[in-house]
Design brief:
With 325 residues, the protein is of the alpha/beta class. The protein has 11 helices and 15 strands. The chain has 2 domains: 231 residues, Rossmann fold (3-Layer(aba) Sandwich); 78 residues, 2-Layer Sandwich (Alpha-Beta Plaits), CATH 3.30.70.
Length: 325
């Protein structure tokens, strides 16, 4: 696996994975010869429409489902290996936890399953509950009274309990408020910094773009694209610039082309008072705005288009775009 210019030690290797399910009409192929690798400490975002195979893929990687063909190696072993299970943290999409337990009891139960030293369990449970910022008043409330956002927090707490080397997150920020989303981004970054390999399945493309090193697009059970966020950022984005009516005589097409060239951008369209510039991320957007001001044509408004990940997902530009082309 290559991330930018840095070769990473392979943590997960998937080779020609096939998963089929029996249906009334015969057999449905949910995964069709899926192959890719993940580097140690890498954050992978799985994207794709509903029914693309993302959850099926994650379930195979977790050992919940057994593939019909192909192989999965996690740290050189099968997902079924007990030594692998001990290294894995998982937050499912469907938060069907043990409702009669309190949040503290739930995390304590998982600490026992993880074979923590008995005397250390209360302290460890408290530390992870504090880390996910679950309201202390909720620690001893039954889980059945929790909101979706609180369930996400207690789910993340149990996943982080044993400092996993592999973290699988299925729609982890669903139901969270902005403060909770920022917290989860911080937790994911902290886990990456200590070397954890993280796989995130999410429809929230703007959040994936902020935390992922790389994104894999699945459609109809097949990989249609595999790109690093860095690559996507350097590909075409758009900055829409708008001017006030009184500056119409100051703005000429030739000047805009010269300014765009200086910033490393490209003028795509101009129809006063709006121009569209092809750019490559926030840094270039900032430079372009500075060049426009320097040319004495200050702008009234500048609006970036949808995130790079949203553009590629919506336009289908992942087709044929392999990470290591």
């Amino acid at each position: 696996m290559v991330l930018g210019e840095l070769a990473l030690e392979t943590a997960i290797e998937i080779n020609k994975l096939v998963k089929e399910f029996r249906v009334k009409s015969g057999r449905f192929r949910a995964l069709d010869e899926v192959s890719f690798s993940i580097g140690k400490g890498e954050i992978i975002g799985l994207v794709g429409p509903n029914g693309a195979g993302k959850t099926t893929l994650m379930s195979c990687m977790l050992g919940i489902l057994k593939p019909n063909e192909g192989s999965i190696n996690i740290d050189g072993m099968s997902p079924d290996a007990l030594s692998v299970h001990k290294q894995v943290g998982f937050v499912p999409e469907r938060l069907n936890y043990i409702n009669w337990m309190t949040g503290r009891q739930f995390v304590t139960f998982h600490a026992k399953l993880s074979q923590f030293e008995k005397s250390k369990i209360p302290e460890e449970a408290g530390l992870v509950l504090e880390r996910v910022q679950l309201d202390r008043k909720a620690w001893d409330r039954k889980i059945k009274s929790y909101s979706r956002g609180m369930l996400q927090r207690v789910g993340m707490a149990q996943a982080l309990l044993h400092s996993p080397n592999f973290l699988f997150l299925d729609e982890p920020s669903s139901g969270l408020d902005p403060e909770g989303i920022n917290l989860f981004r911080t937790l994911i970054k902290e886990e990456k910094d200590r070397g954890c390999t993280i796989i995130i399945n999410s429809h929230q493309l703007d959040q994936l773009e902020k935390v992922s090193d790389r994104v894999i697009l699945l459609k109809n059970g097949s990989i249609k694209g595999d790109r690093s966020i860095k690559d996507l950022t350097t590909l075409a984005g758009t900055l829409q610039v708008k001017w006030s009516p009184e500056v119409i005589e100051s703005i000429e097409l030739e000047i805009l082309n010269v300014v765009a060239e200086k910033a490393g951008a490209e003028l795509e369209q101009f129809n006063f008072p709006i121009a569209l510039f092809k750019t490559a991320g926030e840094a270039m957007n900032t430079k372009l705005i500075a060049e426009l001001n320097r040319a004495s044509i200050p702008i009234a408004e500048a609006i970036p288009t949808a995130s790079k990940l949203e553009q590629f997902f919506d336009l289908g530009d992942f087709e044929g775009a392999a990470q290591n082309e």
